[in-house]
Amino acid sequence: MDTADSSARSDSALWDPRRRAFTAGLILVITLVAFEAMGLGTALPTIVADFHAGQWYSWPFTVFLAASAVGTVIGGRLSDTRGPAVPLLVALPSFAVGLVVAAVAPGMAVLLLGRVVQGLSGGVLIVSLYVMIARVYPERHRPAAFGALSAAWVVPALVGPLIAGLLTEHASWRWVFGGLAPLVCLGAALLVPTLRRFREPSAGRAAARPGLPLAAAGAAVGVVALNWSAQHLSLLALVVAVVGLAVLVPSLLRLLPRGTLRASPGLPVMVLARGLLAGLFFTAQAFVPLSLTVVHGFSPAAAGVPLTVGSVGWSVGAFWQSRQRRLRGEQIVAAGFLLVAAGVFALVWALPAWGVPWLVFVGWFVAGMGMGISVATTAVTVLSLSPEGERGFNSSALQISDMLGQALLVGAGGVVVSALATASSPTRGVLPLDLVLLVAALPAAVMLLRSGRVKPV
């Protein structure tokens, strides 16, 4: 029996004495991961300038994403076969090692090696934490646990770029990585007592899934190929994109639950919805700073404020979903699609030259709320629908869908904006792109509502 379920009568939530250290460690680790993610973009221009490696500007992000895809699958498989404690005990110090490698890197090659280690460890880390949440917290408290995960991103979103900028300017960009490593070890120390209590393998039998490591590698290659192709519009890029898709599609058939691409009711539609939501939200968000800067004359700092506002809305939405008991998961996620659609609708009226730019702040808070209620709800629902021996695989599928949705739609969005741009109007493609995203969000909401009325097979 799941230990979390056996304590279902307890009225305590996150800060029960039995879970207090784990909750604190969980929030600290995710906060540090978020600080590193938010700070890298601020420090990266200085890093590539120091290494004289401008042509490698996007690769610290790309290799991290590819390695994360592999780590996610490995973490899910290990969580199902060995239990989540083992991969967590390996991933936490490994992530710290990756930070140190990046901090002491003498050149871009070693920095990229550090990012690969961070990506592998981070992928294992996130999936293992998902499975641990299912073991540590009773089912009715899991929405609050995932709400805490979302809340852990707020402070890094508010002050992470500022702190990274100050460190880069007045000390060294190396502190953006190295300064976090000891704190990651502290977070690990807080988690260890709970990990020891839950170190046994899953009581459920994990299904045999041959070829998962190869499929994970295929997904990583496909993601890298598609990202590279989106940045290099040429005949060669088209060939690379086709090859990437040829590798990616069969890999996904192994990495995602059966029926995901058909939006089958239950767990598959939740996995699919997670990828669609991530793609819609982050594709629209990617061009907000550009439009505000080029079209409306915002300073770089002011143009980044809507992203912070969206992060705050994300946490508000996650908190709201943690208090819901009556709505079905499909209804909540459908509402999330509608809120993201409302945010994109605000962008349509805010970003063009004739628009009202202050609407972007309201709209992106609303869109962030949509993501907050939906991301947490998809995680909670997937765990509740998963047999114990399948939680790792299904949680990794959720993350793969999220990453792939972003990679595909952000890349496609970049192609659209670049294709329609002119010297006098570099953001001319943003409005058509937002209209397409707005139209795509509405049938996705209908898909979720219809799925909720069908009993899963």
From TrEMBL:
Keywords: Membrane, Transmembrane, Transmembrane helix. The chain crosses the membrane at residues 21-44, 56-76, 88-113, 119-137, 144-167, 173-192, 212-229, 235-255, 267-288, 300-320, 332-352, 358-383, 404-423, 429-449. It is found in: Cell membrane. Residues 22-457 form the Major facilitator superfamily (MFS) profile domain. PROSITE patterns: MFS. Pfam families: MFS_1. Its main location: membrane. InterPro entries: MFS (IPR011701), MFS_dom (IPR020846), MFS_trans_sf (IPR036259). It is a multi-pass membrane protein. It comes from the Bacteria. This is MFS transporter. It comes from Saccharopolyspora mangrovi. The lineage of its organism: Bacteria, Bacillati, Actinomycetota, Actinomycetes, Pseudonocardiales.
